[in-house]
Write a structure and sequence with these properties.
The complex is a heterodimer.
Chain A (H helix, E strand, L loop, with lengths): L7 H6 L9 H9 L14 H11 L5 H4 L5 H11 L4 E7 L2 E6 H17 L7 E5 L4 H12 L3 E5 L5 H11 L3 E4 L2 H9 L9 E4 L13 E3 H12 L2 H13 L5 E6 L9 E5 H14 L7 E3 L7 H14 L2 E4 L6 H8 L3 E3 L2 H15 L4 H23 L6 H22 L6 E4 L6 H9 L4 E7 L4 E5 L12 E2 L4 E4 L4 E5 L6 E2 L3 H7 L6 E9 L5 E6 L4 E2 L5 E2 L1 H9 L4 E7 L6 E7 L1 H10 L7 H5 L2 H19 L9 E6 L19 H7 L1 H9 L3 E9 L5 E12 L12 H4 L1
Parallel strand pairs in A: 1-11, 3-4, 3-5, 5-6, 6-7, 10-11, 12-13, 13-14, 25-26
Antiparallel strand pairs in A: 1-2, 8-9, 9-19, 14-15, 15-16, 17-18, 18-20, 20-21, 22-23, 24-25, 26-28, 27-28
Helix pairs in contact in A: 5-6, 5-7, 6-7, 6-10, 12-13, 16-17, 16-18
Chain B lengths: L13 E12 L2 E12 L3 E5 L6 H8 L7 E6 L2 E2 L5 H6 L2 E4 L11 H9 L7 H6 L2 H20 L15 H14 L4 E5 L7 H18 L2 E5 L3 H7 L2 E6 L2 E6 L1 H6 L1 H8 L4
Parallel strand pairs in B: 3-8, 3-9, 6-7, 7-8
Antiparallel strand pairs in B: 1-2, 1-4, 4-5, 9-10
Helix pairs in contact in B: 3-5, 3-6
The chains are: A alpha/beta, B alpha/beta.
């Protein structure tokens, strides 16, 4: 596409004029914001910002400005306007190795040329498998440079899962991290006849492999660099860059699939850039920001935060040394922009609580005293709310010196400007803990199909039990059955090779079915209850939102996972997974001896403890008029941990309820036929792929139910 | 101690030859007339039931014991009576059946300690960490970091080894032996007390050391599956005598080996 004469043209392309209800706002956003290169994060006057940029790059017109509609073009811009700023870091051999934007641009350009020599073409598909490594992020950029479509795959998927995605996507090239991934691909190569070349990052162990179709990434880059010495090749690569347009597919992200096969979500450059811009503008990210890239690159969050926003705002991406060193690396880097699913915040907190019990009495008392104080006033201070006395403020400052700052340092959150949690509901106590010690933690609600952003929490309106207001440029409506529908510039094109599913998910006027049930509260904040299809009805007609109940259980550190049943039944019952770290620590302190997970899980005193938690959950449920019917009548503690390798969880650690119900059918039957224990034997898959059988006798406990209160109270807000 | 004019060995040449070695402690005969060789770049296993003399054999090879009879030739030169550190300087590194690390030192420092044998700058410079010592330390640190990367122990780089689980301590010990860049690496039960996953990792590292650096490895191991998968040749000892020697397949079929392991009806 030739650069449009008006910067607004492109934005309007994809929005039929008839739907431009809020035309004024849209015009402004579409016209000015999306095509403005972010330079200093000057929010007050977009024009001033543009002028500042024009002085640096001579003769930048609006039209030229708007050409940066793909990531390789953004990369080229970054290499021009901030060549010496650090773009990527990777800890290798114990040292943070770094690359500037100019270097990254140079490498990606050569890489693209090398990939072209290996036969990667416009529209071709290239799989990317591995942990967060600079070379894998650069593969995404190099593929996009050529107009090929990168397809990141979860690195911990087993070979068969991987084969399905690669075959479905028809990939011709694969770029992987190491020998482990190469071996997986070779194991399923008969299912992938179209795959021509495999590239790897780490040569270890691959020396004696057949290298006719196997290449190291560095050799491909070197090959590309040699070719670029020729002016004709250099011109060709430049033309490939200019041929890319915003409406091209930028990436296909396969969703991990809570049910059924993974679906390939197709996103255009326009959508990904627009979504990335929403976040950059909202939190005022700029080139001085740092992010630690440690979540799966196949996950939309990582793609937006560690790739799209990095390229857009010019922030620095730090890749950890290995998955085991993330905590240490986070501390060393001191990221300013942090993202983590709730379970990571939970495990950091659990570990801290366990460790503090081992500290000296003085430290322990100091810790508990100041944490109590932070609980009382910390959040108000962070929010800038009035009503905190001078003495309390002073005490918080003392606590900051003695406890909060050291804790933030331990967590690697000293420099955090904004931290996000999403993917699951976070426990209100956990959320409040981080905020009270001065970490600006927020929640957002997003989906792969929206390039993440659907709702966000603006400063000063942060609450544990809602996911915030609609993000800028996002429209939301609630269907009659309670399902949340959204429309935004980041919305996906469709599912790859699945028009039927696309039609089911996208309405004719561009809204997307989120599949989640929710409602807006009195303050205009969205509250998500559960997956729309999971919200069931019990036999007496009362509402049964399984996830809502499970989350209440999971907020206790001793409970790692919970699965509730109750749709079409007389009462609600639950499976509970204990958290081994927390419970084993408790066991050590209380003289409970055990030899295995199974024995600990079945211990009568563990049951007593969990029973107390379930009782508290029931009491809390009884105080909510809509949820009171969902109190847990019977529960049991599972003899094994739910595991993604056994298909019980998705790769993003979400419960697959239907599968679990089938697998543990005898236990569910026992929960509803009144028996006090049940036998179960299940097949388990070990990490090396071998299978074994675990059998156990599991005890079942009955609970007292509370009468449902009819008056509406807001339990969380009231605390 | 490295012989200045020893011949350059290529793959398959005899690196170490044990000829008619006997070892006795007073009246106890630990080894009786044992002969075998270890060739360059192979993985050689020494197996046998408990008390067969395997560890005594390793101790002879690395100079901790001196055989009462017979001789040991290393790189074509007959071994004189020597101290273990001289053997180490000559290019023989080992790990121990019971992990022998500096418990309160970090993983990094333990492996650096293994490297100290290669340090050339004098004590004075090392004391002040200046001049040639600093430059040298940077080079050695790089080599050690490569070992850490190779053994995938980055996450415990700064952890005192005494706090580590046993499987990881074994890995650190292997790292320390590798830091010497040995010609011959002796591993005394590298997999003892490990679970399946740890054994798989360790096997991977042993094969990788052998393939990538061409290091010759002699190992003692009780897990027959591991031995048969890893080694090129196996020597079997029983009551201090050699009863079999050959490829894993040959040894597996040998009636005397089967008897030694399963016992015979007397």
């Amino acid at each position: 596409m030739v650069a449009p004469p008006l910067p607004t043209l492109e934005g309007h392309d994809r929005i039929p004029p008839i739907t431009l209800v809020k035309s004024n706002r849209h015009d402004r956003n579409k016209g000015a914001a999306p095509h403005r290169p972010r330079h200093r994060g000057n929010e007050a006057d977009p024009h001033a910002d543009r002028h500042a940029v024009s002085r640096e790059e001579t003769s930048v017109t609006a039209a030229e400005d708007s050409r940066e509609d793909t990531f390789p073009k953004l990369l080229t811009r970054n290499a021009r306007i901030r060549p010496q700023r650090t773009a990527f870091r990777h800890k290798d051999l114990g040292i943070w190795q770094s690359w500037t934007w100019a270097q990254v641009h140079d490498i990606v350009r050569a890489y693209a040329c090398g990939l072209q020599a290996l036969g990667l073409q416009r529209g071709g598909k290239i799989a990317i498998i591995g942990y967060n490594r600079p070379h894998l992020y650069w593969t995404i950029a190099a593929a996009q440079w050529l107009g090929a479509i990168p397809i990141p795959v979860y690195a911990d998927s087993v070979a068969e899962e991987m084969a399905y995605v690669l075959a479905h996507a028809e990939v011709t090239h694969a770029v992987v991290q190491d020998q482990e991934q190469v071996d997986k691909l070779l194991a399923v190569s008969d299912q992938l006849p179209r795959m021509d070349h495999v590239l790897y990052d780490e040569p270890k162990g691959l020396r004696d492999y057949d290298h006719s179709r196997l290449h190291s990434i560095t050799s491909v880059i070197e090959e590309g660099r040699a070719r670029l010495a020729d002016a004709g090749e250099a011109g060709k690569i430049e033309r490939e860059l200019q041929n890319g347009k915003g409406s091209d597919l930028a990436i296909i992200l396969y969703t991990s699939g809570t049910t059924g096969r993974p679906k390939g979500v197709m996103l255009t450059s326009d959508a990904v850039i627009a979504a990335a811009r929403i976040g950059c503008d909202f939190d005022k990210l700029d080139e001085t920001d740092e992010i630690l890239a440690y979540l799966p690159i196949a996950w939309v969050g990582d793609h937006i935060f560690s790739y799209a926003q990095a390229f857009l705002a010019g922030l620095c991406v730090n890749c950890p040394e290995s998955p085991e060193t993330v905590a240490e690396d986070r501390r060393e880097v001191g990221a300013t922009y942090v993202f983590a699913p709730p379970r990571i915040f939970e495990s950091i907190l659990t570990l801290t609580m366990v460790r503090i019990e081992d500290a000296s009495a003085l430290k322990r008392r100091m810790f508990h005293f100041f944490i109590r104080h932070a609980n009382k006033v910390g959040e108000k201070i962070l929010n800038g709310e009035p009503g905190v006395g001078a003495w309390d403020r002073l005490l918080w400052q003392v606590g900051n010196v003695l406890v909060y700052a050291p804790l933030r340092n331990r967590f690697g959150m000293t420099r955090v400007k904004v931290g996000y949690t999403a993917g699951e509901a976070i426990g209100p106590e956990i959320f409040r803990f981080y905020r009270s010690i001065g970490v600006n933690l927020k929640q957002l609600y997003g989906q792969t199909e929206a390039s993440v952003y659907i709702t966000m929490q603006p400063d000063g309106e942060i609450r544990a039990d809602t996911v915030g207001r609609p993000a800028p440029e996002v429209e939301i409506r609630i269907a009659d059955n309670g399902e949340v529908l959204y429309r935004s510039p980041g919305v996906f094109v469709g599912y790859y090779k699945d028009d039927e599913k696309t039609a089911e998910t996208k309405t004719p006027d561009g809204f997307v079915h989120s599949g989640d049930a929710g409602f807006f509260d009195a303050n205009g904040h969205l509250k998500i209850i559960d997956r729309a299809k999971d919200v069931g009805k019990m036999r007496d007609g009362s509402l049964f939102p399984p996830k809502y109940v499970e989350n209440k259980l999971k907020f206790y550190p001793n409970i790692k996972e919970a699965v509730c049943f109750g749709d079409g039944k007389d009462y609600v019952s639950a499976f509970v997974n204990i958290d081994l770290v927390a419970v084993s620590n408790w066991a050590e302190r209380n003289g409970v001896t055990y030899a295995s997970y199974q024995e600990l899980a079945g211990h009568p005193r563990v049951y007593e403890m969990i029973e107390k938690h379930v009782d508290e959950v029931n009491r809390s449920l009884s105080s909510e008029p809509r949820m009171g019917g969902a109190q847990i009548k019977r529960f049991l503690i599972l003899h094994k941990e739910l595991d993604a390798d056994d298909g019980e969880l998705t790769r993003t650690q979400k419960v697959r309820r239907g599968f679990i119900a089938e697998r543990y059918a005898p236990l569910i039957q026992a929960l509803y036929d009144g028996s006090s224990e049940a036998d179960i034997s299940t097949e388990v898959t070990f990490e090396d792929g071998r299978k074994g059988v675990i059998s156990a006798r599991v005890k079942i406990r009955d609970m007292e139910l509370y009468p449902v209160q009819e008056t509406a109270t807001l339990p969380e807000a009231a605390e | 101690m490295r012989a200045p004019d020893h011949p350059v060995l290529s793959k398959g040449d005899v690196l170490l030859a044990v000829e008619n070695v006997s070892l006795g402690f007073g009246g106890v005969k630990a080894l009786t007339d044992v002969s075998f060789d270890i060739r360059k770049s192979e993985i050689r296993a020494i197996i046998g039931p408990n008390g067969a003399g395997k560890t005594s054999m390793l101790n002879c090879i690395n100079g901790f014991y001196y055989p009462t009879e017979g001789r040991i030739t290393f790189k074509g030169v007959k071994r004189p009576k020597m101290r273990p550190y001289e053997a180490a300087r000559g290019g023989i590194a080992r790990t121990f059946q019971n992990v022998a690390l500096f418990k309160s030192m970090s993983t990094l420092d333990n492996i650096m300690a293994g490297r100290s044998i290669r340090m050339r700058s004098n004590f004075f410079w090392q004391l002040f960490r200046h001049g040639p010592a600093m430059k040298e330390e940077v080079e050695h640190r790089r080599f050690v970091e490569e070992i850490i990367d190779f053994l995938e122990i980055q996450h415990i780089r700064k952890t005192p080894v005494g706090r580590l689980p046993y499987g990881l301590q074994k890995r650190v010990e292997l790292g320390r032996a590798l830091a010497m860049e040995p010609d011959l690496l002796l591993l005394d039960e590298p997999m003892a007390g490990m679970n399946l996953e740890e054994k798989e990792d360790m096997s991977r590292f042993i094969l990788e050391v052998n393939q990538q650096y061409g290091t010759t490895i002699a190992l003692i191991e009780h897990d027959m599956g591991v031995v048969m998968d890893l080694s090129d040749r196996v020597v079997v000892l029983e009551y201090g005598r050699k009863i079999a020697d050959g490829t894993p397949d040959e040894v597996k079929r040998d009636q005397r080996v089967i008897d030694a392991y399963l016992g015979v009806a007397h």
